[in-house]
Write a structure and sequence with these properties.
single chain, about 210 residues, alpha+beta, 4-stranded antiparallel beta sheet, 11 strands, globular
Length: about 210
């Protein structure tokens, strides 16, 4: 998204909500491990992610919030009972997809407003967590972690969560990434996770300058 001489760029992996043909889709993507340098390491990290009580707790907080957020606006809500591991270029996540039918009169904007901010970016329980973030984070997020997407005149469209993004200005770039902090989080591991998430943005900038 461009405004004047500034541009907001990124490739968010997290779908907040999509409405198409009366069907609603949302994705819970929470809990992470990096990719391994070889197949054995990659599989070990996958198994470690799937069996981690801390990562499963983090995932469950987001999954439960999505289920509660879409329920007032949807019927026939479907999602697997157990998350899967989805692998991306340099990171792997626990993933639970949701599918449902949009209730008459409900819109994509209703669902987006109900879901945002998910616990992945706004904490849980939401009111207390948002107050703590506002008090402790000491930064203006701008578009970071906000819903970014589109909707047509028929009410169909999709919104993603603006993660792993960057604000480009003439002569500078400010990059954003974060991690889910729960009881049992290790500060060094969480910092390493943000570095993993920032790597594609840094590499893109380096390639653009080359």
């Amino acid at each position: 998204y461009r405004r004047g001489q500034r541009a907001w760029v990124g490739a968010s992996p997290e779908l907040l909500a999509r409405v198409e043909g009366g069907r609603v889709r949302a994705v819970c993507l929470a809990g992470s491990r990096p990719r391994g340098e070889d197949q054995e390491t990659d599989d070990r990290l996958r198994d470690e992610l799937f069996s981690s009580a801390k990562e499963r707790e983090e995932h469950e907080l987001v999954r439960a919030a999505i289920a509660a957020g879409i329920e007032p606006f949807c019927t026939s809500i479907e999602h697997p009972d157990t998350p899967a591991v989805v692998r991306m270029a340099n990171i792997q996540h626990l993933k639970t997809p949701f599918e449902a039918t949009l209730r008459p009169g409900a819109t994509l904007l209703d669902i987006a407003a109900s879901l945002h901010p998910t616990p992945a970016v706004g904490g849980s329980p939401r009111p207390a967590a948002l107050e703590a973030i506002d008090r402790l984070e000491q930064m203006d997020r701008g578009w970071y972690a906000g819903p970014i997407g589109w909707m047509d005149f028929d009410g169909e469209g999709e919104f993603a969560v603006g993660l792993r993004s960057g604000l480009l200005s003439p002569g500078s770039a400010r990059l954003y990434a974060g991690a889910g902090i729960v009881a049992g989080s290790n500060p060094e591991h969480e910092y390493a996770e943000t570095e993993t998430k920032l790597r594609p943005l840094r590499e893109s900038l380096a390639n653009a300058q080359a």
